[in-house]
Specification:
The chain is 43% helix and 15% strand. Strand 1, helix 1 and strand 2 form a beta-alpha-beta unit. The longest helix is centred in the first third of the chain and has 17 residues. The strands form 2 sheets. A 7-stranded parallel sheet has the order 3-2-1-4-5-6-7, with helices on both faces. The two termini are 28 Å apart. By secondary structure, it is an alpha/beta fold. Helix 1 packs across helix 8.
């Protein structure tokens, strides 16, 4: 293993899942990296480390924390900046030539800012996604645009993302897909042959985005959607920490627990979640990663959003609801008892292409 010259910042579960294949590829090649968890999320990280076989982080900036509410997020933000300001000039961080941030979360933006403060070249993984509307989704779209301004290397997951960055400063590297593909293949392999559909049909439901949780009318609508869906087909509702807190705060927890056919599930290990998807009849979600997984697996999926920055699966197995009740009801009735055929992604590795592009940068200094 070479001396670490890459600083990798990971803040959320989705970022971990999509970054793990990159870490594994660097381990395979003996490329040294310094792994830092921001602490924005910590729940299930130990399970993910075990599932993917990744090592423990070298540093955790805010240990044992879960920024699941607005107040907790503000507290995490304070502790994050307090932690990093003492590190940006440390010999370990200063020895790194490239830093990787992923996606469109607060950890992404804060991480990019910190890397620039440390004089480290910023590499943005999953760059170039755009909704074309500055405030929708909020704050993710703003984060994407700001991080693109701060980045020197943009790892885009395809041609659409590349076109979105036309005229942007820095190097653009097309990884021919999202690194999630590698994680999904690992999860499918861990489960062995893809099992057949469960003889007792069920649907999977998952929401967590700020745009849905913070708007009371939208949140109430989505909670009613899951109740109405459970009257047609059993539903397994996977609770993100922020969703769980919102359900408790709004009095929905007991109502959901009392709903026949509805099972509330805590977040689980990634291979278990993939197995849950494979065994279901359809997925209802607001998650971007879920949309990508659905497109690769071929699972019928309804996006519980007004717009999406991704084109994965659209006009195929993925349908954008626009939060329109008629669209939601029609989708549920159409797919509740209709089997679907599981697909397997091809083996071309976005993580391998990403690391291929990283290697020549390791002896370069950021030229600003």
């Amino acid at each position: 293993m070479t001396e670490p010259r890459i600083l990798v910042l990971v803040g959320t579960k989705a970022q971990f899942i999509k970054t793990a294949p990159v870490l594994i590829e660097m381990d395979r090649r003996g490329i040294g990296y310094w792994l830092v968890y921001t602490g924005q999320h910590s729940e299930t990280f130990d399970l993910l480390e075990s599932a993917f076989g990744t090592r423990k982080p070298d540093e955790v900036l805010v240990p044992g924390y879960e920024a699941a509410t607005h107040m907790k997020f503000m507290t995490w933000t304070w502790h994050f900046w307090k932690a990093v300001l003492g590190r940006v000039r440390s010999p370990r961080w200063q020895s790194c030539r490239v830093g990787l941030v992923h996606g469109d979360t607060a950890s992404t933006l804060f991480g990019a800012l910190v890397l620039r403060l440390a004089g480290i070249k910023v590499g943005h993984v999953e760059a170039g996604l755009r909704s074309s509307r500055l405030l929708d989704p909020f704050p993710e779209e703003i984060v994407r645009r700001l991080v693109s301004k701060l980045s020197s290397v943009h790892f885009v997951p395809g041609e659409t993302a590349r076109r979105n960055l036309t005229g942007i400063r820095g190097q653009i590297v097309d990884t021919a897909g999202n690194t999630l593909k590698d994680a999904l293949l690992m999860a499918l392999d861990a489960a062995g042959p893809v099992p057949g559909l469960d003889t007792s049909p069920y649907a999977v439901f998952s929401v967590h985005r700020n745009e849905n949780l913070s708007q009371r009318a939208v949140f109430e609508q989505l909670m009613q959607v899951v109740v109405d869906t459970a009257a047609i087909i059993p539903v397994r509702f996977v609770l993100h920490p922020a969703t769980r807190e919102r359900i408790r705060a709004t009095g929905w927890l007991e109502r959901l627990r009392a709903t026949p056919g509805l099972e509330l599930l805590e977040r689980m290990n990634y291979p278990d979640f993939v197995a849950l998807l494979v065994g279901s009849r359809f997925l209802m979600t607001d998650g971007g990663s879920n949309q990508e997984e659905a497109a690769m697996l071929g699972i019928p999926t309804l996006l519980l959003r007004r717009t999406t920055e991704r084109d994965d699966g659209l006009d195929d197995c993925v349908q954008l609801s626009g939060l329109m009740p008629a669209v939601i009801t029609s989708f549920v009735r159409k797919h509740a008892h209709a089997p679907w055929q599981v697909q397997r992604p091809d083996s071309e590795s976005p993580s391998r292409l990403l690391v291929d592009a990283l290697v020549p940068m390791l002896n370069e200094r950021d030229d600003g």
